[in-house]
Amino acid sequence: MKKKYVIGIDFGTLSGRATVVDTESGDEVGGAVYEYPHGVMDKTLPCGRELPDKFALEHPADYLEVLKNVIPMALSDAGVSADEVAALGIDFTACTLLPVFEDGTPLCFAEKYKSEPHAYVKLWKHHASQPDADRITEIAKERGESFLRRYGGKISSEWAFPKILQILREAPEVYDDTYRFMEAADWVSLMLTGVETHSATFAGCKAMWDAEEGYPSADFFGALDERMRNIIGTKVSDKISPIATAAGYINERGSELCGLPVGTALSVPLPDAHVALPALGIVSPGEMMVILGTSSCQMIHSAEVSEIPGICGYVRDGIVPGYYTYEAGQSCVGDTFDRFVKNFVPKSYFEEAEREGINIHALLRRKAKDEGVGKSGLLCLDWFNGNRSILVDDDLSGMLLGVTLNTTPEQIYRCLIEGAAFGCRRIIDNFTEHGVAIDSICACGGIARKDEMMMQIYADVTGREIKIAGTLQAPALASAIYAAIAAGIFKTVEEGSARIAKPCYKIYTPSWENHKLYDRIYAEYKRLYDYFGRGENNVMKVLSSMK
User: Fold this and answer.
1) What is the mean pLDDT of residues 221-245?
2) CA spacing 20 to 30 A to 87: which of 180, 185, 511, 521?
3) Is 292 left (phi over 0), alpha (psi -120 to 50) or beta?
């Protein structure tokens, strides 16, 4: 029997999402979502231990639960049997780091470490390692390390080595007992195949590795802490696996976990934002992808290397062989709206939404839609979870300016959306100012499909057409493309993208009248951005230190 189906799983911040793809037609024929039982642990561990400020952890058992549940659910939805599946592909939020024993067991599974926060998964938005990121940047600058240029001149607390350095500093026993620090994607791959891999794209984007230069030297790590001198090849794998290849094949344990047959190919995992590009048909330079979820990433290919301050980095051959793929981003977008609704919207609004049979976000959008540009007198800095790009500083915090006794919840809600759009425009401008051309923009993610007002604001703020992806599950769909390549169904990323991509659902065209008004507000946004973000006024850091 010819196997023509592949599955992609996107391990996001709150859930795992799977899609089943027919490689002949290119259609998504079924899908499913499974919420993580533990969710994001930023207040307490399962044992009840309280977590310090800026911790964001997850439980690796949740990822195994996704495998057990979401694949059978997706296959059932598609009406496809497991025997018809040729390959599986996975992507993950990044950097999502966990310490494991030599047999691959996470340290947090051991009784000894169930109440130790540093034994759990550090999610991408774990920002408690900002001092360690600052130290890595400082030492790299003092030594003139070349790798720093690849990451916009600063190392982010969201990446691998700041998190590892924090563990060494605060929980040395965890560090000593760790056989390997792994990206969660590589760990899931190990659980399914029994083969340890280290994805080149994760290593390049989040762990200071380069195809030509490799990792930083032992002397650099020794300068950070002598106990880290020989970390590469020991606690961090130096065996790097290229993209668009098979990480391995599902073994008996993996088959028991996910229900797919032994011998099913598994592609080398990829970061969730990076992997999405081919699902939108973006396999060459010129088009930027903006993925909107709990956070936001801006991704673009380039044929040449440009040194761009404040970006998350770039990886050669990281998504499409032959190109450099650049990443920038905002640390919270959907999270901002979620926290605002949960904490600052009065009960009467929820009651009104219930009477009208709509959710609270729909009610706020409807009320905010008629506010008009600038009518609220509000402006915000969208740093409610720190600034990922271009300031690369998670000690920064959000700001809402212009509030009066007459300010309404819907006005604040609209201002939060506008702040996210201004942050996106600042990133776009940073790319173009440093030589990376952006000819068009395609947005994906649930917000892009659901929130028409927000997408129109993005078009008006940026002064650019915003295309909306034709799939709700771009990362999972793209993971299915790489699965098909691993299975030999497609030979190249371009071929897989041409067959399966869903590039455009609709287009938002900017209102030039609104754009002119937003230009005036954006000029003030940039002034605040530099004033509070570049050291002229460090009040945010002072307040953060007092916490």
Assistant:
1) 97
2) 180
3) beta
CB atoms within 10 A of CB 205: 28
Q: Say if CB 86 and CB 265 are below 8 A apart.
A: yes
Q: Count Cα neighbours of 108 within 13 Å in the Cβ-side half-sphere.
A: 21
Q: What is the pTM of this model?
A: 0.95
Cα distance between residue 547 and residue 145, in whole Å? 33
How far apart (Å, rounded) are the C-alpha atoms in residues 459 and 139? Answer: 41
Bridge partners, residue 468, by sequence: 443, 506
Question: How far, in Å, CA of 472 to CA of 446, rounded?
Answer: 6
**62 φ, ψ to 5°?**
-65, -35
Burial of 245 (0-12, 13-18, 19+ CB in 10 A): middle
pLDDT digits (tens, 9 = 90+) for 464-476: 999 999 999 999 9
Nearest to 125 by CA among 45, 13, 206: 13
Longest dimension (CA), the chain: 69
Per DSSP bridges, beta strands 324-330 and 313-316 are antiparallel
SS3 category, 34: strand
> Could you give the CA distance from residue 473 to residue 228 in angstroms, rounded to a whole number?
39
CA angle 36–253–233, rounded 5-degree value? 85
Contacts of 491 (CB under 8 A, 6+ apart): 485
Q: How far apart are CA 10 and CA 308, in angstroms?
A: 29
Please tell me the distance from the alpha carbon of residue 263 to that of residue 261, in angstroms, as a whole number: 6
**Residues 6 or more apart in contact with residue 95 via CB below 8 angstroms:** 122, 124, 158, 159, 160, 163, 183, 202, 206, 207
Quote the CA–CA distance of 192 and 266 in Å, as a whole number: 8
Residue pair 90/191 in contact by the 8 Å Cβ criterion? no
**Please, what sign has the CA dihedral across residues 228, 233, 235, 239?**
positive
465 near 507, Cβ under 8 Å? yes
DSSP 403: -
Task: Dump pLDDT digits (tens) for 154-200.
Answer: 999 999 999 999 999 999 999 999 999 999 999 999 999 999 999 99
Identify the residue whose tokens are 């794209």.
201
